[in-house]
Specification:
- With 379 residues, the chain is of the alpha+beta class.
- Helices cover 26% and strands 31% of the residues.
- It has helices at 13-24, 59-79, 98-109, 119-125, 148-161, 204-207, 284-297, 346-359, and strands at 4-9, 29-33, 48-51, 84-85, 89-94, 114-117, 135-140, 144-147, 165-168, 172-178, 181-186, 189-198, 215-226, 240-244, 249-253, 260-265, 270-271, 307-316, 322-326, 329-336.
- Strands 5, 6, 7, 13, 14, 15, 16, 17 and 18 form a 9-stranded mixed sheet that branches. Strands 1, 2, 9, 10, 11, 12, 19 and 20 form an 8-stranded mixed sheet that branches.
- The radius of gyration is 21 Å and the shape is globular.
């Protein structure tokens, strides 16, 4: 006898959305989370995440993000809480930078509502940003930020409201395919389910060695700077931004606590050998890389960060997510390798996972996500 139709291992960003979507469809779901939904040991923590549609990955990216937007609004309505704030997102950089040219092509090709700003416009409208005469910006209008921890908690809560069972502080140690399903061995005991979705973030490779080197856990950092004038950094005056000059990448958010501005620097993340023992200390070189870019590009902030936090996520070599059925495990759907840019797509990914479990295919699933593309995958 099965304990559930579908087991979901990891009730974080993707797992919570999968549980919610499956439970909404009337599927008996059993979720396992080794900590609790919205914990800070994986990729969820940090208060906010960017939501935008613009990217040069392809039309499939815009389609997934537009689908996700509808589902974010549905989750807000069901949960009765605000999760997505549309401040707009500023993409800033040199006018002839590859990143800016690609972004301009994307917003035009994908018919995304946007405004192009000159260096003069940027200085006048957004004075907290520093820059020279070559710095221009594209403002994507229907974009902004998500409250990440409340979003995961809301999805998990709504999944339970629809009948899902989520076992908190219960770690799955192994997945054993059976003729008619899967056995999950957890700290609390053994469970039988028909299918399983593995959404275990940095731990996915440990639970599914079939991933090989296809998905690797890596650490990344987020810093918060105190704003000298918090009102100038409020969401209605300081949109989410991404600053890219083809050599460095700095992104940031308006204040959500009335005091601080969150910034992130995209540089080569450090591999995590053991996700159970994430190194949360920040080296001087890492902190210096953040300070250098903040000092160069932002005004109105205190001289150094008030705090720096460290998180981890699973990274694929091409930074595309790994979503689908592993060749050797037809009963298992894997959601991994989101490389710290999957949060905006999360409810759409949950729907894709539900489609794969129920129907074996999804209209939203692009070939770029296929696990078979990874050279380390065991067949």
């Amino acid at each position: 006898m099965q304990d559930a139709e579908v087991g979901v291992v990891g009730v974080g960003t993707m797992g919570s959305m999968t549980c919610w979507e499956l439970a909404r469809r009337g599927v008996r779901v059993l979720g396992f989370e080794q900590f609790a939904p919205a914990h800070d040991r994986g990729a969820v923590g940090g208060e906010t995440r960017i939501f935008r549609v613009t990217d040069d990955w392809g039309d499939w990216y815009a389609e997934i993000c537009r689908d996700a937007l509808d589902r974010w609004r549905r989750l807000e309505q069901e949960a009765g809480r605000s999760l997505l704030t549309l401040t707009g997102v500023l993409l800033i950089g040199p006018e002839r930078a590859r990143s800016m040219l690609r972004a301009l092509h994307a917003v035009q090709h994908q018919d995304i509502s946007h405004v192009c700003l000159t260096a003069t416009d940027l200085a006048r409208l957004h004075p907290l940003h520093r820059g020279g005469a070559d710095q221009v910006a594209i403002l994507e209008r229907d974009a902004g930020f998500l409250r990440c921890e409340p979003a995961v908690a809301a999805a998990a809560g709504m999944a339970e409201a629809h009948g899902a069972v989520i076992r908190r502080f219960d770690r799955v140690r192994s997945i054993e395919p059976l003729g008619d399903g899967v056995r999950l061995r957890a700290d609390s005991g053994s469970y039988r389910v028909g299918r399983v979705v593995v959404a275990d973030g940095a731990w996915a490779g440990r639970l599914l060695p079939q991933l090989g080197e296809g998905v690797q856990p890596r650490r990344h950092m987020t810093a918060w700077y105190l704003a000298r004038d918090p009102a100038a950094a409020a969401p209605d005056r300081f949109p989410v931004f991404i600053r890219n000059d083809d050599e460095s990448d700095l992104s940031g958010f308006p204040t959500v606590d009335g005091a601080s501005v969150k910034v992130m620097v995209d540089f080569q993340e450090t591999r995590v050998d053991d996700p159970d023992h994430l190194d949360r200390d920040t080296s001087e070189s890492e902190a210096g890389a953040i300070r250098a870019l903040v000092d160069r590009w932002l005004d109105g902030l205190e001289a150094g960060p008030a705090r720096i936090t460290v998180y981890q996520d699973g990274y694929s070599a091409d930074r595309h997510p790994v979503v689908g059925v592993l060749p050797a495990l037809p009963q298992v759907v894997v959601l991994a390798g989101f490389s710290c840019h999957g949060f905006k797509m999360a409810p759409a990914i949950g729907a894709i996972a539900a489609d794969l479990v129920q129907h074996g295919a999804s209209r939203l699933l692009p070939g770029a996500f296929d696990p078979a593309r990874l050279s380390g995958i065991a067949g």
